[in-house]
Structures are given as C-alpha cells and as structure tokens.
C-alpha cells in the first residue's frame, strides 16, 4: 500500500499558524474591550451655559441669573408659513442655551468633537426640574424633558461650508416656574465614541445683578479674586448645611478672621470667594457672654432662596431675587439682621422642608438661655418664634441651670428634639434629650444620656439597658443627626448612640472613645460620613454597627500611591480639607492643595468603595499549596459573588416622573449644521411644549389625554403636505418641524436599579427580585423531621422597615441549587392605616425600606458598569400618600354624549362656546368625571363616591367660599338641585354622589339661581362654580381629588311674579300693537285722501304765488314804500281767493 501523502515540509507550522490566528483574535478582541474601558475612564462631557448673543463665540460660560422668557423668537415663527404651528400663538424663548462638548485625556477637544460629529455622535440632554418647596403656590410634579443637541459651527473663525472647523452642540436650557434647581444629564445617542453619562447641576443664581456697564456683581457682597493660603491652610473643616435637594446656591463660611464665604451655584464645580457686605458690629453685653470679637462667619445655612449666617452672636439673612419662585420680587437689597436683641450661640439646620416652608433654628445664650428661636421661611419671607411658648426648657424640666447644645426638628410630627446640658446643685453635669411638640406645646424628657462610656467588652455594639458596666471615660455629647426617612437618630460626641424610636439606644463600640466627632454628613440614602476634631474621616452604613476608618488608613495610603503613580492633579503632599458633603449619594471633599507653592481649591470624589477594598486587601493573606506551586489568596468576607436586581416594575408608576421629548427641527442646509435662526426656532418649540404642559391642568378634560393634542389636532391631516415641502426643499425658513418630535413619552425603559424614591398610594405595593450567587458551596440539603430534605443557604436577606405599623414587607426565597444561587422576591405593601386623604403630592409621609444581605455591610465591593459600587445594602425612601401627577377632570365629552342619549335631545346656548358647552335646565344632568394619570397616560372614568358644592360663579366672579345651597336636611327653600339618592355624609351636610347619578335642577326661592333676570329675549343663563371632592366618602385612595369648574346652565325658569309681570307687559304691548293696527287699517283711506288734498293745495298755492309775483314785480317795486297794513290786506285777499278755488274744483269732480 502506498503511504498517505502529506504536504511537503514539517507538520508544526500548521499548529503555529493556528496559534498565531488565536493570538491575533485575542489581540483584536481584547483591546476593544480595554479601549472601551479606557474611554470610559478618560473621556468626559463638558457643558457650559451660553446666552443667545454668545452662541458660537467660544468665550466661556455665562452665569445663570436671567429668569424671564424672551420674545425674540416670535418674529421667526411669523415667517414659517405652511408649517404645523399656530400663527395666532405667541412663541417665546428661554434666555440660555447649553453648549456641549467632550474631551479625552491627551487629545485635542476640537478634533474629538469633529470626529464624533462625523461618526454620527449626538449628545442627548435630560433636564430634570426639582419640584418647589411651596406646594401651595406651585403644583408638585417630577418633570423631565429630553432634548437632542443640534450641531453648530463656531463663529470665532471663518471656514468654507465644506469644512467642519470648530463646532459644538447646542440645546435650549429650559426654565420652569417654581423650579430653581435643575439637573442636566448628558449621554450619547449610541453612535460614535463611547462616553459615559455625566450629570451637571445648573441652578439659578438669584444673588447676582447686572451693573450699568453690563457686568455682573453679587448682591451679597464683593467678589474676591485672590485665594490667600491663610484662608484655608491648617484651618479646621466645617459642615456644609442646606435644605436637601432644594438649594440652588450653597454657602460655606469658616474663613479665619474674615467676613468672607465661599459661594457656589454648581455644588463647588466652580465657586466664588465673596466678602459679605455686613456691618460686623458686636452687641456683646453683660447678658451676652462673649470672649472676644471675630470677623469669622461661623455658621452658614442655605435654603431655596435665602442665605443665613452667624457672626459672633448676630444672625443675618439675605433673600435672593427669584421671581420665578415668588412671582414678585421678595429679594433683599442688603443683609437683614434678625433677632437683634438676642445672643445667638449656634444655628442648627433643618435638612427637610415641610408644609410648604423651610426651617432653621437659633440657640440662645444669656438672658434667654433655654429657649429656641424657630425660624420659618416661606416664599423668601422669614419669621421667628421663641419656643417653648410659656416657660423655658429649664423651667419645664425643673432644673436651675441648663443649656441647649443642639436641636433637631422632625417636620412629620412637628417635634423638636433638644440636647440639653444640665448642671445640678453639686456642679455635676449630665445630658438629657428632651422632646417638644410645636402643636400642643408639650415637653417631655425622652432619654437621659449615660455619664460614662459603656464597657462593650469586645462587642461591636451594645444595647443600653441600664444594667451594663461603664468605663471611666465621660460621655461628652456634642450634637445630633436625624434621618426623617428611616427615623434613625444619632447622638454623637466622643461616642455614637443610635436609635429608631428615641427611647432605646445602641452604643457603637467600634468608634474609639479617644476621638471626638466634629460633624456628621448624611446622604439620606443609607450612608453616613463622620469627621472628627482631628480631621479624620469615618464611614458608617445605616443599619449596621461597624464604623470604618477611611482617612488616614492603609487603604488611603494605597490609593494615594496609585494616584501619585498616575500623576493625578487632584492630590498633593500638602492639603487641607475644607468641607465634606454628599452629592447624588457620592461623597465629595472640598480640598485646598498646595503644589509648588501654588494653592488651589478643588472638589474631588472620596472613593469609599476603593478605600474599603484596599483596606480588605491589606489584611493578612495566606499562601495555599496548589499542586506544584503556592497560590496567594485573600480572605473575602462578602457572602456572595454576584448580585442582580430582577423583575423591576415600571418605574414611572412609582417614581412619578413625567417625561417630554424634543428634537431640533430638520434643516435644509446640506452641511447639516444649524443656524442661529434654526436654534431660535428650537428654543421656541421647547418653550411652547412646556407651556402646553403647564396649561393642561384645566377642569375640562380634552377628548384625548395628551397635553400636546391641541398643538397638532388641526395639523395632523396635513403632515403629508409638510413632508412634500421638506422633500422638495421648499419649507419656509429652511427648517421643517416634525410633529412626532415633540411629545410626551410614556414607554420609558426600566433601569436595572432601584429608583431614587417611590410613591405608594393606599394599599398599593412595590415588588422586585434579588438574585444572589453564593460564594463557595454555601447551599446544601439538610434532612428535616418527617424525612423531608430542605434546601438551606448561608446567604440571608433581611428587610428593615422604618414604620412597620404603616408598611409591610414579604420576602420569598427560592434556592437554585444547580446555579449555587438564591432568588429573593421582595414585596413592599402599604397597610392603608397611616395616612388620611390629601391633595396630590401634598403632606406625604416619609418612611423607608432597607434591604440588606446579612454580613455584606462594608465587605461587598464589586466592579459594575458604573464603576466600583457597594452592594448588599439597598435603601429605598418611600413616600406614602397621594402621588403627584393624579387629578380629577370633568369629562365633558362623555357627559354631552350621555345626556343627549338620556334626554333624547341636546340644546346648546345661542352663543356657542366650544370650551364650555351649555346644559338645559329642564333636562336631568348626568355629570361624569375622569381620573387622569399625567405620568402613565392612563385616563379612566371615576367610579368612586363624591360630594359637591356650588355657588354663583360667572367667569369674572370668584366667591370666597361656596355657601350651602344643597343638602339632605336643608329646609330653607335654597336648594339648587336634588337627587334620588338618599345617602348622605355623617354630618348630614351633603349628599353622597356616585357614578351615573342624575341631578334635577330646582333653583328654589332662596337659591342664587332663582329669579335670574334675562339680559336679552332669550331664556336666562347662569354660571355655577362647582366644587367636587371625594374627601371622606371615597375610601379606595389616599387622594383628595378636588375639582373646581364652571358649569353653564341656560333655559332657567322665571319667578312667578316676574313672569306674570312680563306676561302682562307683553300682553299689553301686543294688544296695543293690534289696536293700533286696526285703527290704522280703518282710517288709512281717509288719511290718504286728506294727505293728497293737502298736498294739492300746497302745490296750488305755491304755483299761484309764483305767477302773481312775476306779473306784479314792477308794481311791487314802485310801491315798495307803501305801509305794512296795505300789504297785509292784499295778502289776505289772495288767501281768500285761493280758498274759494278748491271748493269749485270739488264740486266739478262730484258732478
């Protein structure tokens, strides 16, 4: 047999070629992944604010202080003929644009932007409006608008049309009434280079004004441009105090011996050093114990529109110019000194607003020791009241000497928690926590703090029961911190005590008693940072008991070494921390760095997750024998390797976020770049879209539940014609407006993370699943009694509820033994017992749910698509009540259809108003209402119960309070209507109405619609102002649906006396006309003869007189000197002759 022929040459090259191909494939695949990671880390978005006049000039950024809309774009819309717009509407624009670029480390930004544009990159901007504090003035809503940026060539240099040159992207920067805090999220459209999403804070600065030379200056003081090192070097850090999520401008004092502050409207992305224009006087006296005078601003607190500072013992405030909030200018012209006769030793912040107001507390010393001045800020107006109202705290708790060290206000139950230092007769000092209720003026002692630090004996925490042993270290409380969501209270000093009910406290023994806490920073999402007097930074996860040291630590040293190797400019060998604060659940430092004798103030992220991970890796390691080699291994204390969220519901239903979407108009320019005119049109379209949103909240429901329906309802039929124009390049103004690009979006993709907060209505629930892959082999079978095998897992999940009497949680576990995983299904449900009915978004109850994997706090740090993230602890703030975005509307469309069907006819008013149809008095009126969800787009008939009140209400009249003109027990002949339903409210004041119930109009004698005077020949008309509410009669929801609308009624009957009077007058007039007609018909022939005879006589006299005058003109001229008597006789003879002539004529006619 012949051997099998092989190719010439050795066989190893084939394997070598295969290995080369595999290596090449690995090289081709891996770098793309690495490059994506590298781009993710190095490339970033850049956003600045530009006015319309500075578009394309590359001059930098404008300050955001203009708040009024501009009318400069309306002229452009007048030129857009044959476009789907309403020419009768007035289109306005916003004062600013967002200019968007991106940059990558080591590359030219201009070249990168050109590259991104040519590869199809378009930034997508999401503007998130923060709801206002005063919900009594403004409607509470979670509004967002998503816009696509438009490319625009720079005007700084000239280039041909075929070249790109320098370019940027622009979008309008919208402004909404009642909102001064905006978050701008910039993302990519998925084309071009990969750039991670980034959030910017774009807030309105109401503390700026424009000078006569068109330059901006601060109203609170003078800007300083030199950051002197002594302002910050070795100066102690201080807390940053403000109203959570509501403050557009932050203020930070503490600069030694200077009345200057740091002021920022971008959360210290940029900032200003401002010397305040205050008098800096000192009113220290014998009742104000003050050691010495200093110019330092010790306490600084920022609210939505007002800034507070304390210098020495004086308190000042300054209200910014926010016409968008107050509708009128409540701004201050100078700093206002408040509480001028008081000695204020400390200002305490209130992080949460409530009841439409913000709050601040001032602690006194001297003559009013033991009192708290409680400040309320509403629409920029500041007022203070001294509490307690009757006696001081010292007198109420019956002690001789006491001093209030700290105060915390809980806006939910209107309680003050006071940390009181007491000195007894033996000069022994101890501390108590006192509770005071602002409503009933009740004060009580809640807790007495131990005098010495407990002996934990090696435990991480210790429950204070009174039976434990104590060390010789005294407890020195210095302050308190309270989270209104989870009711977690901390008392801190050289110790940490925490409590959920202000009665039972837990001592956290992991914090060293040798240190003293200076202030605490709460993210209110489950994380707490602690700063000590020695500027150490500690970290605590809420719900756990272990406190972690972040700085200085081994993990910090490792991280700093890595940053130095990367030559990071955010770290230096000489640095001083100015403050520490949370922003979007991330911990940030404001640090003063000194590099090469040059100082700078920067904001940098504190990488908590990386520090904890490096801290774990610095723990002792072990070497394990693996066959022929040793393997280095670290102990991982995290009980799971993978954690994922699944089965998340539609987030819009629970987050209540309304989303609009807008895209720039299509341009006919071949280069694809927009012009100033097209950007102005874009500005006007976005403004009109948000204007339609604000005007959609009206009593009468549109036939289509969509705020943009009125915009396009008469233009949809012509959309093919508009497409024809743009296809042939004939659109006016070289722009084409696509109606589909401006709409409200309801189908939003659910993210794979828990929302920032959720809203729960009565009896509703929120459910999701958590998938955990266990570490190692932690799932096993175990034989239970009864010869049943039970799957057991060492991965456990716990749920902590802040208010278990109001909400409940159900957790179901499913063990997936083949996947070494566990699936937990969590459901949170409202118990329907802790909230009364309220208006949509008003007076919501704060609570929270904490989901934690046992043993994961501080140990589970995993790399996700968003970077390193702490896993295993999920805190979800919950707001119980009527969610925002729900309303009751009068279903006029179905009401007209149903009434026409039931009454077999429908008669509208003579003068038809399409916005307010009329209803006939004698017909049975069947009203129908809609429950409309402005977030999800759902709209359904309201089938619950409701009550109604009515009063006289023409379009120009608004009565203060509708009186009673209806009710089951009303016997004063003042009923407006009646129903066949006998069900009434408990107080028998109103009838309880229900779905499809008919109303019969009465308008009795004492009702306002009785005896309506008609203003024309048509039947009388009447306007009712109707108030419909389901409060107290509808138990299916927390929502108090209140609807006030005008109802137009016509065909009202007249009063009997007035009707008889009108009948008599009408009959008399009619009979008079008939008699006059009869008389006229009988006497008409004779009257005609008489008229003809008289006319003939007159003509004859005129003719005779003319003849006589002609024949005797000469004689009359010669005898002009005759007397008047002879002339009179001649005239008399002429008249006699003329009278005889008609008699002869009559006789001749008879014969």
From TrEMBL:
The chain crosses the membrane at residues 1059-1088. GO terms for cellular component: CatSper complex; sperm principal piece. Keywords: Membrane, Signal, Transmembrane, Transmembrane helix. Residues 1140-1151 have a biased composition (Basic and acidic residues). The keyword Transmembrane applies. The keyword Signal applies. Residues 207-649 form the CATSPERG beta-propeller domain. Residues 905-1099 form the CATSPERG C-terminal domain. Residues 43-203 form the CATSPERG N-terminal domain. Residues 753-879 form the CATSPERG Ig-like domain. Residues 1-36 form the signal peptide. Residues 1119-1136 have a biased composition (Low complexity). PANTHER family: CATION CHANNEL SPERM-ASSOCIATED AUXILIARY SUBUNIT GAMMA (PTHR14327:SF1), CATION CHANNEL SPERM-ASSOCIATED PROTEIN SUBUNIT GAMMA (PTHR14327). This is Cation channel sperm associated auxiliary subunit gamma.
């Amino acid at each position: 047999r012949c051997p099998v022929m092989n190719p010439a040459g050795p066989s190893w090259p084939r394997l070598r070629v295969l290995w080369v191909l595999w290596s090449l494939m690995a090289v081709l695949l891996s770098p793309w992944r690495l490059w994506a990671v590298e781009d993710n880390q190095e490339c970033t978005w850049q956003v600045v604010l530009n006015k319309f006049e500075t578009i394309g000039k590359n001059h930098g950024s404008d300050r955001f202080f203009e708040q009024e809309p501009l009318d400069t774009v309306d002229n452009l819309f007048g030129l857009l003929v044959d476009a789907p717009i309403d020419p009768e509407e007035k289109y306005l624009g916003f004062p600013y644009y967002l200019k968007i670029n991106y940059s990558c480390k080591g590359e030219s930004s201009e070249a990168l932007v050109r590259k991104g544009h040519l590869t199809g990159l378009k930034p997508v901007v999401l503007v998130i409006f923060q709801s206002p504090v005063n919900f009594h003035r403004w409607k509470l809503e979670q509004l967002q608008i998503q816009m696509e940026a438009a490319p625009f060539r720079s005007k700084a240099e000239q280039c041909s049309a075929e070249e790109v040159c320098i370019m940027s992207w622009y979008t309008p920067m919208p402004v909404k009434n009642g909102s001064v805090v905006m978050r701008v999220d910039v993302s990519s459209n998925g084309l071009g280079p990969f750039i991670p999403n980034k959030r910017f804070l774009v807030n309105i600065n109401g503390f700026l004004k424009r000078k006569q030379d068109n330059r901006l200056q601060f109203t609170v003081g003078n800007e300083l441009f030199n950051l002197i090192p002594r302002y910050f070097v070795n100066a102690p850090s201080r807390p940053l105090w403000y109203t959570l999520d509501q403050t557009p401008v932050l203020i930070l004092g503490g600069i030694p011996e200077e009345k200057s502050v740091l002021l920022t409207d971008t959360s210290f992305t940029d900032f200003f050093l401002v010397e305040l224009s205050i008098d800096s006087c000192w009113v220290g006296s014998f009742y104000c114990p003050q050691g010495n005078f200093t110019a330092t601003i010790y306490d600084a607190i920022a609210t939505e529109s007002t800034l507070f500072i304390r210098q020495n013992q004086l308190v000042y405030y300054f209200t910014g110019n926010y016409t968008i909030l107050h509708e009128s200018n409540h701004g201050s012209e100078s700093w206002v000194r408040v509480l001028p006769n008081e000695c204020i030793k400390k200002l305490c912040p209130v992080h949460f607003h409530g009841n439409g107001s913000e709050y601040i507390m001032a602690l006194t010393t001297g003559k009013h020791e033991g009192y708290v001045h409680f400040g309320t800020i509403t629409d920029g107006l500041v007022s203070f009241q001294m509490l307690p109202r009757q006696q001081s705290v010292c007198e109420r708790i019956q002690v001789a000497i006491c001093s209030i060290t700290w105060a915390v206000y809980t806006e939910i139950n209107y309680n003050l928690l006071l940390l009181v230092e007491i000195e007894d007769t033996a000069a022994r000092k101890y501390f108590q926590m006192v509770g005071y209720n602002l409503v009933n003026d009740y004060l009580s002692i809640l807790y007495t703090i131990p005098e010495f630090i407990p002996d934990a004996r090696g435990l991480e925490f210790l429950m204070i029961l009174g039976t434990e042993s104590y060390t010789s270290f005294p407890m020195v409380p210095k302050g308190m911190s309270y989270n209104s969501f989870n009711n977690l209270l901390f008392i801190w000093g050289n110790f940490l005590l925490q409590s959920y009910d202000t009665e039972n406290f837990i001592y956290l023994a992991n914090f060293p008693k040798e240190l003293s806490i200076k202030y605490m920073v709460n993210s209110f999402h489950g994380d707490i940072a602690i700063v000590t007097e020695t500027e150490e930074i500690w970290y605590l996860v809420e719900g756990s008991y272990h406190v972690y040291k972040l700085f200085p630590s081994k993990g910090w040293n490792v991280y700093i070494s890595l940053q130095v190797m990367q030559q990071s400019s955010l770290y230096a060998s000489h640095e001083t921390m100015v403050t520490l604060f949370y922003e979007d659940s991330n911990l940030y430092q404001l640090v003063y760095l000194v590099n090469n004798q040059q100082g700078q103030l920067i904001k940098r992220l504190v990488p908590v997750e990386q520090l904890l991970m490096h801290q774990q890796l610095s723990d002792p390691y072990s070497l394990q024998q693996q066959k022929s080699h040793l393997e280095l291994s670290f102990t991982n204390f995290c009980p799971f390797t993978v954690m994922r969220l699944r089965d998340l519901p539609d987030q819009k239903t629970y987050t209540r976020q309304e989303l609009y979407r807008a895209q720039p108009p299509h341009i006919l320019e071949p280069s694809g770049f927009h012009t100033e005119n097209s950007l102005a049109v874009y500005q006007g379209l976005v403004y009109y879209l948000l204007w339609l949103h604000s005007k959609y909240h009206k009593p009468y429901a549109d036939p289509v539940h969509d705020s943009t329906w009125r915009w396009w309802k008469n233009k949809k039929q012509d959309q093919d014609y508009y497409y024809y124009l743009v296809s042939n390049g004939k659109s006016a103004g070289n722009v084409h407006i696509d109606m589909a690009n401006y709409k409200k979006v309801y189908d939003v993709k659910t993210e794979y993370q828990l929302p920032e907060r959720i809203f729960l209505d009565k009896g509703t629930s929120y459910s999701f699943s958590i998938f955990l892959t266990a570490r190692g082999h932690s799932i096993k079978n175990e034989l239970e009694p009864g010869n049943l095998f039970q799957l057991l897992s060492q991965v456990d999940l716990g749920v902590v509820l802040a208010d278990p009497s109001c909400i409940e949680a159900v957790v179901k576990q499913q063990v997936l033994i083949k996947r070494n995983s566990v699936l937990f299904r969590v459901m949170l449900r409202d118990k329907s017992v802790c909230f009364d009915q309220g208006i949509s978004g008003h007076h919501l109850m704060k609570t929270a749910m904490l989901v934690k994997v046992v043993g994961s706090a501080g140990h589970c740090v995993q790399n996700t698509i968003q970077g390193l993230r702490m896993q295993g602890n999920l805190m979800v703030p919950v707001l119980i009540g009527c969610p925002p975005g729900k309303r009751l509307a009068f279903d006029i469309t179905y009401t007209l259809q149903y009434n026409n069907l039931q009454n077999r006819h429908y008669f509208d008013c003579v003068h038809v108003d399409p916005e307010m149809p009329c209803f006939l008095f004698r017909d049975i009126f069947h009203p129908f209402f809609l429950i409309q969800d402005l977030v999800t787009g759902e709209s359904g008939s309201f089938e619950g119960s409701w009550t109604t009140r009515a009063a006289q209400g023409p379009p120009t009249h608004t009565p203060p309070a509708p009186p009673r003109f209806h009710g089951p027990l009303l016997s004063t002949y003042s009923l407006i209507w009646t129903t066949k339903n006998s069900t009434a409210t408990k107080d028998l004041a109103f009838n309880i109405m229900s779905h499809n119930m008919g109303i019969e109009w009465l308008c009795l004698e004492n009702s306002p619609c009785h005896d309506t005077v008609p203003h024309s020949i048509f039947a009388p008309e009447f306007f009712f102002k109707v108030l419909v509410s389901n409060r107290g009669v509808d138990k299916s929801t927390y929502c108090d649906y209140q609807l006030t609308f005008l109802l137009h009624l016509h065909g009202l009957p007249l009063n009997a006396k007035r009707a008889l009077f009108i009948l008599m007058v009408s009959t008399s007039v009619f009979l008079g006309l008939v008699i006059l007609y009869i008389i006229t018909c009988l006497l008409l022939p004779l009257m005609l003869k008489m008229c003809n005879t008289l006319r003939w006589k007159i003509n004859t006299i005129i003719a005779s007189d003319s003849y006589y005058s002609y024949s005797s003109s000469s004689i009359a001229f010669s005898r002009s000197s005759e007397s008047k008597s002879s002339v009179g006789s001649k005239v008399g003879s002429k008249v006699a002759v003329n009278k005889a002539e008609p008699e002869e004529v009559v006789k001749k006619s008879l014969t």
